[in-house]
Amino acid sequence: MEGHSVYVPKSGFTKWLEARLPIISLTHSSAVAYPVPRNLNYFWTFGAILTMMLVVQIVTGVVLAMHYVPNAKLAFASVEAIMRDVNFGWLLRYMHANGASMFFIAVYIHIFRGMYYGSYKAPREVLWILGVIIFLLMMATAFMGYVLPWGQMSFWGATVITNLFSAFDEIIPGVGTWIVTLLWGGFAVDNPTLNRFFALHYLLPFMLAGVVGLHIWALHHVGQNNPTGVEVKNICKDTVPFTPYATVKDAVGVVFFLILFAWFLFYIPNFMGHADNYIEANPSVTPAHIVPEWYFLPFYAILRAIPSKLGGVLAMFSAVLILAFLPWLDTSKVRSGNYRPVFRVFFWLFVAACVVLGWLGAKPAEGGYTLAAQILTVFYFSYFLIILPLLGLFETPRQLPGSIAEAVLAKKAKRAAPADASVNG
Amino acid sequence: MAETVPSAEPTRRDFLLIATGAVGAVGAAAVAWPFIAQMQPDAATIAAGAPVEVDLTPVAEGQILKLFWRGKLIFVRHRTKAEIESAAKVDVASLRDPQPDSARVKEGHAQWLVVYGNCTHLGCVPLGHQGAYEGWFCPCHGSVFDTSGRIRQGPAPTNLPIPPYTFVSDSKITIG
């Protein structure tokens, strides 16, 4: 996108550098002059928050890897050594473990924001799909990271999740078993599994960083969506330069998010973990209640809601992959949920369904819980496959503002004269 | 740039393009092979699967012995008369994975049931003497197995598989 200003090198050195590698002008056009819709709210600061969390995870992870031993006999003790012996090891490990949860809190808010404001619609489909790929990579990374401490939950989580692939035996006998043996490097989850998971857990965040780069590139090419969902029409009137406006707003969001992070980190560092993971892995005993980390619970509830192994596995993977098709499933021409009265209701029902599914995922799979999970699973898929396609055809959206500037000025006028506003509706 | 003249006849350039492409594809597959094969169980892991001998004398009636072979958990269950009867009298046709009890034990050794100890759903360890059939109950996702290790309720698709084993004597078996 065309920016608010153009970088002109002034000194001899910058002129010399610009002629060889135009890196300063690239930084200027994408982080200083880049036009940002002037009506963005705080939900738009989560991109910056997520970028920061990725950096936090990579930095703490690299440092932890200097003390951790990826060997089935030594891994558990090495994590305890990090907690007790390594200088500030407890802090670094808690930062990394809670950081993963904070990363997912931020990504879920970021995804729901995109879903509410229709940020996936043309021309942002590729941007959205790159986001789904980031989400998938995050899930794979988080899963493998959780295996590394080699506690009971690590071991049995690894067993259950890798066994998901054995469901393919029901399509072509032997294929599932072959894949699972390939993942394990043995006949059960054991040392070879831990070793390769460690290598991949170290690799994936850098692939994640690469896809994040593409995600930001795509974003800067098409421009940001905004709460009205109306495209930028006039750069001068509808947008402000990224620096200082977005930079400062993002910084405020980051600070408040860090306060939440610090609260978990220093006051309840084990709140989102499981006590069972402080018991070393034992392949002959499964803990009575195995549950995945909280951020997988809605998908886990969907897996358990289907009374067939293959069906459950397919439903769980579909629940994530269906997100990639969202740009084509939502048929409405209007982007923002602010102007879609019926969509809004279903959107919040969908959010509630995801939260309740998460709660059900932590409950035992029996009786009423299973039935509730089944009903919500049907709703989850109906939202994408029935409700969104039909809403676009039948819903009458509210009048869209002519431009972003118009929407902002109307809001200001309303605030200045509240009495008039109530008369005008 | 020089103009290329489209010709109906295959040229030497067409031949070179196809030949190079084919060799390249074979080469890529040949390089990919070791990178995938290295993920398979290595020699040490396979060697650790040497047969193990199990002495059955200390296993009392009703008891379930847990042991490992090739890193996999195995249950050796000394079944009681009642457990054998309840496993034998089931209508085989009504089972999800139909197998008579006699096909799951060695002839003349019906009191000994030897099965893998991981649920066929997602691999958790089922708890012995629990569930509606007093066989096993898996706490993870609720699969129920009978005293023959056959799936009766819940999401598991198949019976607990039987590892390869033979009776060396009446009180000793070799697994593997």
TrEMBL record, chain A:
GO MF entries: metal ion binding; oxidoreductase activity; quinol-cytochrome-c reductase activity
Subcellular localization(s) per the UniProt record: Membrane
Domain named Cytochrome b/b6 C-terminal region profile: residues: 232-402
Residue sites binding heme b b566 per the record: 110, 215
UniProt keyword annotations, A-Z: Electron transport, Heme, Iron, Membrane, Metal-binding, Respiratory chain, Transmembrane, Transmembrane helix, Transport
Pfam family, one: Cytochrome_B
Reported cofactor(s): heme b; heme
The keyword Transport is annotated on this UniProt entry: yes
Record membrane topology: Multi-pass membrane protein
Oligomer status and interactors: The main subunits of complex b-c1 are: cytochrome b, cytochrome c1 and the Rieske protein.
Family: Belongs to the cytochrome b family.
Protein's name in the database: Cytochrome b
From TrEMBL, chain B:
Other known facts: The Rieske protein is a high potential 2Fe-2S protein.
Source species of the chain: Camelimonas lactis
Reactions that this protein is recorded to catalyse: a quinol + 2 Fe(III)-[cytochrome c](out) = a quinone + 2 Fe(II)-[cytochrome c](out) + 2 H(+)(out)
The protein's role, per its UniProt record: Component of the ubiquinol-cytochrome c reductase complex (complex III or cytochrome b-c1 complex), which is a respiratory chain that generates an electrochemical potential coupled to ATP synthesis.
Keyword Transmembrane recorded: yes
PROSITE patterns per the UniProt record, alphabetical: RIESKE (PS51296), TAT (PS51318)
Assigned EC number: 7.1.1.8
UniProt-recorded Gene Ontology molecular function terms: 2 iron, 2 sulfur cluster binding; metal ion binding; quinol-cytochrome-c reductase activity
Family listed: Belongs to the Rieske iron-sulfur protein family.
Lineage: superkingdom: Bacteria
Keywords: 2Fe-2S, Cell membrane, Disulfide bond, Electron transport, Iron, Iron-sulfur, Membrane, Metal-binding, Translocase, Transmembrane, Transmembrane helix, Transport
Record's subunit section: The main subunits of complex b-c1 are: cytochrome b, cytochrome c1 and the Rieske protein.
Transmembrane segments: 15-36
Topological type in the membrane: Single-pass membrane protein
Cofactor(s) required, per the database record: [2Fe-2S] cluster
Native organism taxonomy: Bacteria, Pseudomonadati, Pseudomonadota, Alphaproteobacteria, Hyphomicrobiales
Protein name: Ubiquinol-cytochrome c reductase iron-sulfur subunit
